[in-house]
Design a protein that fits this description.
alpha+beta; 8-stranded mixed beta barrel; globular
Length: about 325
């Protein structure tokens, strides 16, 4: 029975490790009919995409909270990820109310990560973080209430147009307005919200993949905790994959650039000789852009059921309630 429970938990993406906890009980209470419908819904989703059989690509499955590198149709690397937070339950009603009032205080949060396709074209090492105004009003204000010196102690710079201001002079009330007059940027370094590296791909929503110093959420079953971007638990293997065949950069050079230790002394010496040319036309201060020699396809998709490489059917929680919406549509149109 113990092994059966563990297998069930693995097949459902749970971290209870043999203990029948709340999440396991919820999954056990799903009816056979619901499981069948879930399989049908995901068969429909698989019809929407045509993944290449031979080319390399990166796949993020939101309900699984995992990233995979796929080559020749086989996965050879995976990493846990965190995705965007779920909308509030009354999102639709609140959005309708916001459309009537037009008051920013009435606008509900919408951080859910979208299904996207793009091509990763470059990486940013030691990135800065331009704080969106929505995050200023919520997270930054909350943290300033707990610590009035939060901005200065966490390496934030504040600008009014081009004028740099003393971060400690900014008041909470200044960030609690519809149009915040300031630009807040977090410098590279320890504690930067984007970690040491971010991966940029073309999309109109400002979504990207990135490292993070916030490690505890990777232990959660439900890792829908971000503001929409994808946090990657193990970004270095992904970076190494993207740098394959790069004419200038390699993973040792990248590690040195972001301050990680490299045992290969020859690589350290070679990097020291080439650093100026490596950063030419692609750098600003500590931040360095590494343009890839070949863009790599990225799929961010939403599957709550699939068959793994061992032939086992896996299920995941419908974290954004998209199964329910799709099921209603298919039933209404008599498509299943």
């Amino acid at each position: 029975i113990f092994k059966s429970v563990q297998q069930f938990q693995r097949d459902n993406g749970l971290n209870d490790y043999g203990v029948i906890g709340k999440n396991t009980v919820e999954r056990l209470n799903i009816t056979p009919e619901e499981y069948v419908n879930t399989i049908k819904l995901n068969l429909e989703r698989f019809r929407w995409n045509n993944y290449p059989d031979t080319a390399s690509y990166i796949l993020v499955n939101i309900p699984d909270f995992r990233l995979f590198i796929v080559e020749n149709g086989k996965k050879f690397f995976e990493s846990k990820v965190c995705a965007g937070s779920k909308r509030p339950k009354n999102f639709a009603d609140r959005m309708e109310y916001y459309k009537k009032t037009k008051r920013w205080t009435d606008k509900p949060d919408d951080w859910e990560t979208l299904n996207l396709y793009g091509k990763i074209s470059y990486m940013v090492l030691n990135p800065t973080w331009n704080v969106p105004q929505s995050i200023m009003r919520e997270e930054i204000v909350y943290k300033m209430k707990k610590d009035s010196s939060y901005l200065s102690t966490h390496n934030f710079k504040v600008y009014l147009d081009t004028l740099e201001l003393n971060p400690d002079s900014i008041k909470i009330s200044d960030l609690s307005v519809e149009k915040i007059p300031y630009k807040i940027i977090q410098d590279p370094g320890a504690g930067n919200a984007l970690g040491k590296i971010k991966f940029i791909f073309n999309n109109p929503f400002g979504i990207y993949l990135h490292d993070t110093p916030n490690r505890p959420p990777f232990k959660y079953d439900n890792r829908a905790v971000s503001h929409g971007c994808i946090r990657v638990e193990n970004p270095m293997p992904l970076a190494e994959f993207l740098l394959r065949d790069h004419p200038k950069w390699n993973i040792d050079f990248l590690k040195i650039e972001i301050g990680l230790k490299v045992e290969n002394k020859d690589a350290v010496s070679e990097y020291a000789e080439k650093r100026e040319s490596l950063r030419k036309y692609a750098s600003l201060g500590k931040t360095t852009d590494v343009v890839l020699s070949k863009k790599v396809p990225l799929y961010i998709d939403y599957y709550t059921a699939w068959v793994d490489d061992n032939g086992v059917v896996n299920f995941r929680a419908d974290v954004y309630d998209r199964d329910r919406v799709l099921l209603e549509y298919l039933n209404h149109n008599k498509l299943i």
